[in-house]
Amino acid sequence: MPFTGNRKVRFVYSGYADGYKNMAIDEAVLIGLQEGVSDPILRIYKWDPPTISIGYFQRHSDIDFEKCSEDGIMVVRRLTGGRAVLHDIELTYSILFTEDDFTPFKKKEIFEYIARALTESLHLLGIDAKMAEKSRGDLKSPNCFASPAQYEIETKEKQKLIGSAQVIKKNVVLQHGAIPLTTAYSRIDKYLTKDSQKKKSATSLSTWAKKKIKDEELLKALRNGFSKYFPLIEGELTEYELKLTDELVKNKYSKDEWNKMK
Question: What class is the 9-259 domain?
Answer without folding.
Answer: alpha beta
